[in-house]
Design brief:
By secondary structure, this protein is α+β, with helices and mostly antiparallel strands. The chain has a single domain (3-101), classed as Beta-grasp domain (Ubiquitin-like (UB roll), Roll), CATH 3.10.20.30. It is 16% helix and 21% strand. The protein has three helices and five strands. It has helices at residues 24-28, 54-57, 65-72; strands spanning 3-7, 13-17, 49-52, 82-84, 97-101. It has a five-stranded mixed β-sheet. The N and C termini lie far apart (33 Å). 29% of the residues are buried. Bound molecules: FE2/S2 (inorganic) cluster (FES).
């Protein structure tokens, strides 16, 4: 079992089982205070925005241009840690990844 450790918008931390082969968003949207993922993973709503802990962020594939552009439009964007979790595939190598749900905009 591969875990995702997520801090929600209320500041509570949860350890949840990630779905290997699917995006991280698919797990986070099932949490009570997780992400809304309004566009369903189409990289067009920004409601799956999370901050990835730096040591984990460095292990992820780089952001594509469309993800980068959408994130950069938001006030809560942080160049060093922001990701749209619908654009990040969860793999077994990411077991233990830590992230925080970004504020609502
Ligand atoms: S779910 Fe809409 S951008 Fe990720």
């Amino acid at each position: 079992m591969a875990k995702i450790i997520v801090t929600d918008r209320e500041g509570a931390t949860h350890e949840v089982e990630g779905k290997v082969g699917l995006s991280i968003m698919e797990t986070l949207r099932e949490l009570e205070n997780g992400v809304e993922a309004l566009c369903g993973g189409m990289c067009s709503c920004c409601t799956c925005h999370c901050y990835i802990e730096p040591e984990w962020f460095a292990q992820l594939p780089r952001r594509q241009d469309d993800e980068e552009e959408l994130l950069a439009e938001g006030e809560s964007y942080r160049a060093e840690t922001s990701r749209l979790t619908c654009q990040v595939e969860f793999t077994a190598a990411l077991d233990g990844i830590r992230l925080t749900v970004a504020p609502e905009e």
